[in-house]
Amino acid sequence: MTQDAQSFDGRRWHDMGGNAAGPVPTDQHDFSLWEKRVDALMIISSAKGHFTVDGLRRVLEDMAPEAFETMTYYERWIASVNQNLIEAGVYTTAELAHRMSEVAARGATYGEASNG
Amino acid sequence: MPHDHHDHLSPSGHPYRPDDDHPLTYWQQMEIAIRELLIEKGVTTAAEINAQIDAMDSRSPANGAAVVARAWTDPAFRDALLADASVASRDMGFDIGPMKLIAVENTADVHNVIVCTLCSCYPRNLLGLPPDWYKSRAYRSRTVKEPRKVLAEFGVNLPDTTTVRVHDSTADMRYIVIPARPAGTDDWSPDALARLVTRDSMIGTGIAKAPESV
Predict the structure, then answer these.
(1) A93 contact residues in B (CB cutoff 8 A)
(2) What residues of chain A, 35 to 94, have a C-beta less than 8 Å from chain B?
(3) What are phi and psi of B204, to 5 degrees?
(4) Model ipTM?
């Protein structure tokens, strides 16, 4: 998935229209609660003016192409939401780190760690 | 992998939804932290987050099917939908937010299909969240280059005489396909017709169901 300097065609990785690719996958999953929450946090944060869909996309597109293969859709989204909210000054990296440690200490599953 | 949720209740007394009992991932840990920080700092509330989730959950292809069925039966509405699908959808009572929606109509000679090559833009505020394949590398890459092959993978085999139009969506401009109305439905009510309209038929990777199938 990486491109060397010689082969770079002027398009970034997300600009994939027209590329060769395999069959369209037919797998489908139901969205879990945490994914729906990520979606909601994006919609609410942008509706309140903290960042825009363009900001969301900027961070997604700045991810290395490997992110598209190794992270799920909403994993990429929460990473981008986080970057945008920190840039907007809504909270600091220190606050995030502290809270993430607290969250992890609550339990080993999502249900336990999210306080219900 | 079997799951047994029956004995697992959250501290609030509700059963966890599926997936809540999986090991906590780094990104889930981040989501929880961000959500709590946003609530504490007054950006949002737990109730507002739940309301937004409920609003998205309530959006489904059935909304689009109702729009399509009306377009099939009400010529004035069809014209309005083709002129401005956002306004027409809102006039039917659908809360599509600020979404800019463009309707494209299949005819005897033209088949439309929608894609978002750059990301995952989809008429989500009308139809709900997109299917996973819509966001896949294969669909995003190939649909603009070899749409007939992609459509064939979905079981839509078009004659060479049919013009295929591919519409590449953006965050500010999203499309919905008005599939062709099936033959033999002349006396059908809009409610009955709506049952023929599938999600994929409004993306263009399918066609409306045959009347004898419902």
Answers:
(1) none
(2) 36-41, 43-45, 48, 50, 53-54, 57, 60, 68, 71-75, 78-79, 81-82, 85, 90-91
(3) 105, -5
(4) 0.92
